[in-house]
Design brief:
Structural class: alpha/beta
Strand content: 15-25%
Distance between the termini: 22 Å
CATH superfamily of the largest domain: NAD(P)-binding Rossmann-like Domain
Helix content: 25-40%
Oligomer: single chain
Number of helices: 12
Length: 423
């Protein structure tokens, strides 16, 4: 049995950021089930196209984080892009976010949406108890039913009545009646991710930048965890047993709790799956687009992203996202023709011919933030902390957050442990 001071489960952004923050002089190991680092931030290069497992674009609020990563990939060209995002509304595209740009709708639709928003701004009622109720109470039925409800039902693949009113937190674009009126004269579509950066080698370059501050010998790849003994502080893999003083996990919390055999309310944890198709074509398509959102229920996907417009490439390169309930059996090989037909019907594909494709199923994809889930997450995270286990990251902490948030959480955990003299 091998002993280690700090054992880290997962070589994605959260796990590697924790190892980097600990420093090369600290006794630690990172255990990763896959043969590559990166988690969901892996990159695929195929037939001259560069794709990620899904569209992972970095939006930095902390200059020191961005400076650190850029310094660690000085040889990589990094593009800084001003986001161009739209909502597909039948015969026209409306600027994102929808709720601030309803004046771009046909007149009757605009009047209905604006009147609903005005009524919502004047209404005084009980606080919404669900995400769906919040959408209607804050924006009115016109806006909610034209875009916010159908789009988010496709994305989360669930009844929005199940989600907490603040399920998306600071990432949900807000707009008051006054904001919409100001938008008529002075357009302002700024949001938390209005500007993003993207390396020409794909999102994996950011992961490699983090990993440059971690000794590669301390990263054990292709080594899935099969059990965690909290009492003995021992992690078991098919190859070895590892005794730890403290454990940091970025494994999805429901999976980790099962590995630990820690009693918990399994039904409190809910999520969806997302099927991502990466598609490469022989010629250029629409320009001046990075994302287009599709609320139409008859279309299989909820979002399409254009890599070629980020890279200024000569051939159309897309990622297409489809949401599914967690229990759904996803058959990518059977769905591709439907997706291509839907892309044609929406005008994304015209004369272009598909020449390369890749797909991945993300499971879990989006955490369903619910009141029951929030309570059980808080309880189990505290129970783990009492026995020297720290579960972090989007999936480890079972939350909705950005990639930068994962980096900050890892750094903050190490700072707290040092402050408490636990390192």
């Amino acid at each position: 049995m091998q002993g280690v001071d700090t054992l880290i489960l997962g070589a994605g952004v959260s796990g590697l950021a924790t190892a980097a923050a600990l420093g090369q002089g600290h006794d630690h190991l990172v255990v990763e089930r896959d043969a590559q680092i990166g988690g969901y931030c892996k990159t695929v290069v195929q037939s001259g196209f560069t794709w990620d497992y899904s569209g992972h674009f970095f939006h930095f609020k902390h200059p020191e984080i961005e400076a650190w990563l850029l310094a660690n990939m000085a040889a990589q060209r990094v593009r800084r892009v001003h986001k161009r995002a739209f909502i597909h509304c039948g015969a026209r595209l409306v600027d994102f976010p929808f709720q601030k740009n309803i004046h771009q709708l046909p007149q009757d639709d605009f009047i209905d949406c604006l009147h609903g928003l005005w009524e919502a701004s004047r209404a005084a009622g009980p606080a919404p108890s669900s995400f769906r109720e919040m959408l209607i109470a804050r924006y009115g039925r016109g806006i909610a039913e034209r875009f916010l409800i159908p789009y988010n039902e496709k994305l989360y693949a669930c009844d929005l009545e199940l989600l907490d009113p603040e399920a998306m937190g600071r990432f949900f674009p807000k707009a008051s009646f006054d904001d919409v009126m100001r938008q008529l004269k002075t357009p302002d579509n700024s949001s938390y991710n209005q500007t993003f950066t993207y390396p020409e080698g794909g999102a994996i370059q950011y992961v490699e930048a983090i990993a440059r501050d971690v000794e590669r010998a301390r990263i054990l790849l292709d080594e899935p965890v099969t059990g965690v003994d909290l009492e003995r502080r021992v992690v078991t893999t098919p190859r070895r047993q590892l005794r730890y003083r403290r454990l940091v996990s970025s494994v999805p919390l429901p999976t980790f709790l099962q590995l630990c055999r820690l009693p918990h309310d399994e039904a409190a944890f809910s999520w969806n799956k997302v099927l991502v198709y990466n598609l490469g074509f022989d010629s250029k398509g629409h320009e001046q687009r990075h994302w287009v959102y599709y609320p139409q229920r008859e279309l299989s996907y909820y979002r399409v992203g254009y890599y070629d417009n980020i890279f200024d490439a000569e051939r159309m390169s897309l990622y297409v996202e489809l949401g599914f309930p967690r229990a759904a059996q996803v058959r990518p090989e059977l769905l591709l023709e439907r997706v291509l037909a839907d892309l044609r019907s929406a005008g994304v594909i015209t004369t272009q011919r598909l020449i390369a494709s890749h797909h991945v199923v993300m499971d879990p994809a989006y955490v369903h933030v619910t009141q029951r889930g929030l309570a059980e997450t808080a309880r189990t995270l505290e129970a783990l902390r009492r026995v020297g286990v720290y579960s972090i990251g989007r999936y480890g902490a079972w939350t909705y957050c950005s990639i930068e948030d994962n980096l900050l959480q890892a750094r903050e955990l190490v700072r707290q442990l040092r402050a408490e003299a636990l390192l």
